[in-house]
Amino acid sequence: MLPAVVDFLACPYCAAPLVPAGAALACPAGHSFDLARSGYVTLLPRGRRGGGGDTAGMVAARDRFLAAGHYAPLTRLLAEAAAAAAGPGAVLDVGAGTGHHLAAVLDALPDRLGVALDLSRYAARRAARAHPRAGAVVADAWRALPIRTGAAGLVLDVFSPRNGAETARVLGPGGTLLVVTPAADHLAELVGALGLLTVDADKDARLAGAFEPHLEPVDRTEHRWRLALPRAEAVAAAAMGPSAHHLDAADLARRAAALPEPVGTTASVVLTRYRRPADLG
Ligand SMILES: C[S@@+](CC[C@H](N)C(=O)[O-])C[C@H]1O[C@@H](n2cnc3c(N)ncnc32)[C@H](O)[C@@H]1O
Ligand SMILES: [Zn+2]
């Protein structure tokens, strides 16, 4: 991990700055965190080890789906919004998954460094290779983020957990938060045909509340694009999402076999931009 990326990180026990120490990162109080061979670091307090977040299968399915370009319009949208809105400081992607969107955002911001934060070590393993200017951290977005106060100029939250107080803490002056949520009709044709979990109508409002009053929404835009998914990638879409925990593989295969080849569906997402109340006056 680049030492300049380590400069953004904080000890999960005492919040002090971390510095490289051989094959580990350490704080002045002597708390030490080994770097995995694949380059990520786990910054979870003791007792919180032992997994969480997306499974290996979910991460592999997401990697496949993203690599096929089905969410390229979303990645482009994020890169454009980032170039227009980033304040000074790091780019933090919370629930970064494979780091796919973060990598495109860093390409659009050639002088910035990035941190991919995810609870899944399978995701962190991939995110560690996502971009030469990014580091990957296993951490829990529901707890204190192991990121120094005010270190981020841009935070991304794409279909991921939302911790308003901590996001506001790590955003520095002039910072922006970009949040992507699924709209009610996101992948509606797959939801019906494959028996996926639906986005509950109240959930959007409930989740949107999670960043307020810590941050102020500035604007909200809806984006839709058509997808023509080969059946195998429709299955990947099911396997990478929350339905993965509920679906029986045999049932999914049977339902997928009845789909047209390719299956047409619409991706439908909402992008909300937030700023710090202090910056809005
Ligand atoms: C739907 S995926 C989105 C991944 C990525 N943002 C993307 O759009 O490709 C949600 C991600 O949040 C991660 N996640 C779930 N719970 C988490 C938590 N408590 N803290 C950090 N990450 C978490 C999962 O491991 C998964 O990678
Ligand atoms: Zn410490």
What would you note in describing this structure?
The protein has 281 residues and is α/β, with parallel strands linked by helices. It is built from 11 helices and 11 strands. It has an 8-stranded mixed β-sheet, with helices on both faces. A 3-stranded antiparallel β-sheet has the order 1-2-3, with no helix packed on it. Helix 2 (56-67) crosses helix 9 (231-239), helix 3 packs across helix 4 (100-108) and helix 9 packs antiparallel against helix 10 (249-257). The longest helix is centred in the first third of the chain and has 14 residues, at 72-85. The structure holds S-adenosylmethionine and zinc ion. Zinc ion binds next to loops.
Short description:
This protein has 281 residues and is an alpha/beta fold. It is built from eleven helices and eleven strands.
Based on the model shown, name its key terms.
281 residues; alpha/beta; three-stranded antiparallel β-sheet; 11 helices; 11 strands; binds S-adenosylmethionine; binds zinc ion
Q: Whole-number average pLDDT?
A: 93
Order of helices and strands: HEEEEHHEHEHEEHEHHEHHEH
Q: Treating each run of at least 4 consecutive H or I residues as one helix, how many helices?
A: 11
Based on CA atoms alone, the radius of gyration comes out at 19 Å
Strand residues, percent: 25-35%
Tell me the strand order in the biggest sheet.
4-7-6-5-8-9-11-10
> Structural class of the secondary structure composition?
alpha/beta
Bound molecules: S-adenosylmethionine, zinc ion
Q: How is the biggest beta sheet arranged?
A: 8 strands, mixed
In whole angstroms, how far apart are the ends? 37 Å
DSSP summary, beta strand count = 11
Sequence stretches where pLDDT stays below 50 over 5 or more residues: none
As a percent range, the share of helical residues equals 25-40%
What spatial form do the alpha-carbon principal axes imply?
A: globular
